[in-house]
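User: I'm new to structure prediction. If I give you an amino acid sequence, what do you actually give back? Let's try with this one:
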Amino acid sequence: MKKEYGGLLVVCQFVLLLLLAATTHWRNVHLAALLLFIASLLLAGWAVKVMRLGHFNVRPTIKGGALLVTHGPYRYIRHPMYASLLLAGVGLLLISCSWLRLAAFLALWLVLYYKVRIEEKLLADHFPDYSLYQKRSRMLFPWL
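Assistant: Good question. You get back a string of structure tokens that encode the predicted 3D arrangement of the chain. For your 144 residues, that looks like this:
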């Protein structure tokens, strides 16, 4: 995959998240939405801690010297950072919903799903044991 294309996907994901965050009516926060948003932050923090800051990549590419991480949240789901972004998006959407915000969330889901599919192929090509890991774990959520 060309670097420019991967970079475009990253820009799209952050613009869509920013749109969701910027159009949120923070006075209407419901407990369930807030808990979902906090859970997304905790999952992201756990994934970064396990992966170690500086070793993960926001672009759908594999860095040189990459290792296959299969512990921590990666034991259950292969893409916890993307899962955390989707959880955050759902939390933000539940705080204040509109057609524009729903469209932004669905676009975010499509961008992240596309990135996941690209990464799954790259990881399978790069790591011989990745297919075994795929059988033991879920893509984004343990219950799906």
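You can read the tokens as a compact description of the fold. Here is one thing that stands out. The two ends are 28 Å apart (CA to CA).
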